């Protein structure tokens, strides 16, 4: 490609970048949107004057960028009064409201059994005050209320009785609601929506008769319906970088559009007619999948690509992408802070810009067909990886391989599943097509399960913006090393330096990954049933029964907790107990958001605690306020809440106390941060017997009731505590009490990670990382 042509294809990049930056600024700081719009208008005017005087392309680019900024900012300016009105009607969180709305997005089930969906509110009532008009809202429905939504789909009118919860900065929805009750007020608003819903349900029903786990992926691959994908398969798809296959993306739209365009060409249609047929087909596909924002976004990109084809500019891929970005941001500025939108854009741009040079570079070392096949997933992985560490600070080392293996199967499953959906009126045809789709879907599910099971394939990485910058630098290094030319000595030296830096980063990172995820578990007793992480001054205790794992508190630091979970090979938690909301017990919560099925928590002590709970719920966790006698299963064991009383005020003395027993586990008691007075209340409320393991209260403070320890007479006393802490924990008085009872003390400040388990003969064993203790 000549430099002049390359420059022409890049001309719209400043407009897309400017529109994106302006949209992000406006949705995060809406008060500034008027100034941004004014600046955009001014820039457009200056650009037009410069074009008239100089006729230079740079001036035209400046004018277009200014216009893009003005349009996206103007959208926010126009929309903001309505959003402000909602905020004034229902200020803050925890306010009771009744919302009459129309469902605007598909229902998304979480691993905890809850359901979330987007809706357009037509009426918002808070007490005697009412606000009319269309306002975007997002609704979370508890698992108990989900059966009432059996017939709810996009276009259905509902009445939602709910409480408001805090919104994230840049949230599209004017209100985020936790529903207490949802009443269906009417069916789908239009016949096409009802028909599309019926077709999707028919495909889900047909696929459900096929063997798992491939059956669960068929509706997702075909029409983006992931309702049949359970938490385990979802985690495996994410761990292997294949989760994008179950969400409708530009690839699905391109596939459907390409087939329609090709079929029209085979029928002898001219280019304009082919494009028209393809666009009509695309509209039907979007309607079938559900016209929610992410699907409309993918469809819009495919439609703009069709427009470029109709104009005879099919090769201008980057320009088409930039035009799509500007158009979508003008229609919906809140996409600018959407991770999904960013991933879609960078993945597409990487395929347009990086895939071909990567293929050329790889072909020096392997057959060209293999290089071409490998370049596509490698380009997407390099581009998307830095953004994905914001969600999960791990790098899937086998993600490229998984995508390369799954690539041939994905379009086959999509096409067969899509055809099965359309043939719902002929059940025997639909079942046959669903069975054909099941074969490649099962292949993909098998790849996900195999890759996710490889120890060490998820390399721990820095989190936050530091992690983004570091992985972006690594990705750039890979591109330079693989795709860079060697004809110029300066470029050759640059490649050598980039290669050396990349080797050091990969070597250090890979070594740490192996130590944490492969060698780490080998340094631990395979039989462990309970283990206290070394996370400083705080509590983070794991309990395991068969394959089920619970975590009691998260400690103060997400990085330390994440390292502990990686070492123990724990990727999903069946139960998280948050005893109370002090920082040393919930500060590491970010490490487990999105990895928890069920949360049992003590009384929240303010808005910060509620935000932490809301973040867990939004990521799929089912929340339960601890109450006496609440119980459940963990593998073969049973857990039961003994404390606090229902009327307890938040704080240390309202710590959730949990009893765990059964399933060949030691009997265990976890005391949170109870004071001596609360410990005496616990004894009055519960006839405590002996326990094999007791997690000592409040890191071994002096405020203890010796009678409780005499009553429970633990074989092992676990004390999660930080080295050289300012509180003098654990206190000598507590240690003397345990010693007098013959209890083996295992403390994380001196012993590092500590663990205990019971053998078949009933003996309790305790293991200390830095001091191997005797068996008991």
How does this model look, in words?
This protein is an alpha/beta fold and 776 residues long. Among the domains are: 3-86; 90-189, Nucleic acid-binding proteins (OB fold (Dihydrolipoamide Acetyltransferase, E2P), Beta Barrel), CATH 2.40.50.140; 526-768, Ribonuclease Z/Hydroxyacylglutathione hydrolase-like (Metallo-beta-lactamase, Chain A, 4-Layer Sandwich). Helix content is 50%, strand content 16%. It has 26 helices and 23 strands. Strands 14-13-12-11-10-9-22-23 form an 8-stranded mixed sheet, with helices on one face. Strand 12, helix 21 and strand 13 form a beta-alpha-beta unit. Helix 10 crosses helix 11 (317-331) and helix 19 crosses helix 20. It is globular. Mean pLDDT is 81; it is low at 772-776.
Keywords:
single chain; 776 residues; alpha/beta; OB fold (Dihydrolipoamide Acetyltransferase, E2P); Metallo-beta-lactamase, Chain A; 26 helices; 23 strands; 50% helix; 16% strand; globular; disordered C terminus
Summarize the topology.
Elements: H1 3-9, H2 13-28, H3 33-54, H4 57-89, E1 96-103, E2 108-109, E3 115-126, E4 129-141, E5 157-165, E6 175-186, H5 191-207, H6 214-223, H7 231-239, H8 250-266, H9 271-289, H10 293-310, H11 317-331, H12 339-353, H13 355-362, H14 368-388, E7 394-396, H15 399-406, H16 409-422, H17 427-453, E8 458-460, H18 464-483, H19 489-522, E9 530-532, E10 541-545, E11 548-552, H20 558-567, E12 575-578, H21 583-586, E13 598-601, H22 607-618, E14 622-625, E15 631-634, E16 637-643, E17 657-661, E18 668-670, H23 676-685, E19 693-695, H24 706-712, E20 716-719, H25 732-740, E21 744-747, H26 748-751, E22 754-758, E23 764-768
């Amino acid at each position: 490609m000549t430099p002049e042509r390359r420059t022409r294809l890049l001309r719209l990049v400043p407009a897309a970048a400017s529109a994106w930056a302006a949209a992000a600024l406006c949705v995060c700081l809406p008060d500034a949107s008027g100034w941004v719009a004014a600046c955009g208008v001014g820039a457009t005017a200056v650009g037009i004057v410069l074009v008239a005087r100089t006729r230079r392309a740079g001036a035209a680019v400046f004018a277009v960028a200014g216009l893009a900024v003005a349009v996206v900012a103007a959208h926010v300016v126009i929309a903001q009064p309505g959003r402000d009105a909602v905020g004034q009607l229902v200020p803050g969180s925890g306010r009771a409201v009744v919302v009459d709305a129309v469902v605007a997005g598909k229902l998304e089930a979480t691993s905890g059994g809850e359901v979330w969906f987007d809706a357009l509110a037509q009426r918002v009532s808070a007490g005697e005050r009412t606000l009319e008009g269309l306002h975007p809202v997002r609704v979370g429905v508890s698992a108990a209320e989900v059966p009432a939504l059996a017939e709810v789909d996009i276009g259905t009118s509902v009445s939602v009785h709910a409480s408001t919860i805090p919104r994230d900065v840049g949230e599209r929805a004017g209100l985020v609601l936790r529903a207490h009750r949802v009443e269906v007020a009417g069916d789908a608003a239009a016949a096409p929506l009802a028909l599309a819903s019926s077709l999707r349900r028919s495909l889900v029903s047909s696929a459900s008769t096929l063997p798992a786990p491939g059956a669960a992926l068929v509706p997702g691959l075909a029409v983006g319906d992931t309702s049949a994908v359970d938490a385990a398969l979802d985690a495996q798809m994410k761990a292997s970088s294949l989760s994008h296959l179950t969400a409708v993306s530009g690839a699905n739209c391109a596939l459907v559009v390409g087939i329609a365009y090709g079929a029209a060409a085979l029928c002898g249609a001219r280019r304009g007619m082919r494009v028209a047929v393809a666009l009509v087909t695309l509209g039907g596909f979007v309607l079938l999948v559900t016209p929610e924002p992410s699907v409309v976004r993918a469809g819009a990109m495919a439609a703009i690509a069709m427009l470029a084809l109709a104009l005879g500019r099919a090769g201008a891929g980057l320009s088409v992408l930039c035009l799509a970005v500007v158009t979508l941001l003008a229609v919906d500025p809140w996409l600018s802070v959407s991770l999904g939108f960013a991933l879609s854009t960078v993945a597409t741009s990487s395929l347009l810009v990086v895939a071909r040079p990567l293929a050329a570079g790889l072909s020096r070392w392997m057959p060209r067909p293999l290089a071409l096949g490998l370049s596509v997933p490698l380009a997407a992985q390099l581009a998307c990886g830095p953004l994905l560490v914001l969600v999960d600070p791990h790098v899937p080392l086998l993600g490229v391989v998984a995508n390369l293996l799954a690539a041939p199967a994905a379009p086959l499953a999509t096409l067969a599943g899509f055809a099965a959906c359309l043939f719902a009126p002929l059940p025997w045809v639909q079942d046959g097509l669903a069975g054909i789709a099941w074969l490649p879907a099962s292949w993909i599910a098998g790849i996900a399960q195999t890759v996710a099971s490889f120890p060490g394939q998820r390399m721990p990485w820095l989190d936050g913006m530091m992690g983004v910058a570091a992985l972006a630098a690594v990705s750039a290094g890979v591109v330079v090393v693989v795709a860079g030319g060697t004809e110029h000595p300066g470029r050759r030296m640059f490649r050598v330096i980039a290669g050396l830096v990349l080797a050091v980063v990969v070597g250090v990172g890979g070594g740490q990954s192996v130590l944490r995820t492969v060698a780490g578990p080998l340094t631990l007793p395979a039989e462990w049933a309970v283990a206290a992480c070394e996370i400083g001054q705080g509590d983070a205790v794991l309990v395991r029964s068969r394959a089920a794992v619970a975590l009691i508190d998260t400690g103060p630091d997400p990085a330390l907790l994440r390292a502990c979970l990686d070492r123990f090979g724990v990727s999903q938690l069946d139960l998280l107990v948050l005893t109370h909301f002090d920082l040393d017990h919930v500060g590491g919560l970010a490490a487990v958001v999105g990895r928890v099925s069920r949360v049992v928590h003590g009384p929240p002590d303010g808005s910060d605690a509620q935000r932490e709970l809301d973040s867990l719920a939004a990521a799929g966790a089912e929340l339960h306020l601890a109450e006496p006698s609440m119980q459940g299963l963990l593998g073969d064991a049973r857990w039961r809440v003994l404390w606090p009383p229902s009327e307890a005020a938040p704080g240390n003395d309202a710590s959730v106390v949990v009893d765990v027993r059964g399933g060949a586990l030691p009997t265990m008691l976890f005391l949170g941060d109870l004071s001596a007075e609360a410990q005496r209340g616990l004894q009055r409320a519960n006839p405590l017997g002996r326990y094999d393991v007791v997690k000592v209260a409040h890191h071994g403070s002096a405020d203890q009731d010796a009678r409780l320890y005499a009553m429970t007479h633990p074989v092992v006393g676990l004390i999660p505590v930080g080295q050289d802490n300012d509180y003098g924990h654990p206190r000598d008085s507590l240690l003397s009490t345990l010693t007098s009872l013959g209890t083996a003390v295992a403390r994380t400040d001196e012993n590092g990670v500590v663990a205990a388990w019971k053998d078949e003969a009933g003996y309790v064993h305790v293991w200390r990382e830095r001091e191997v203790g005797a068996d008991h």
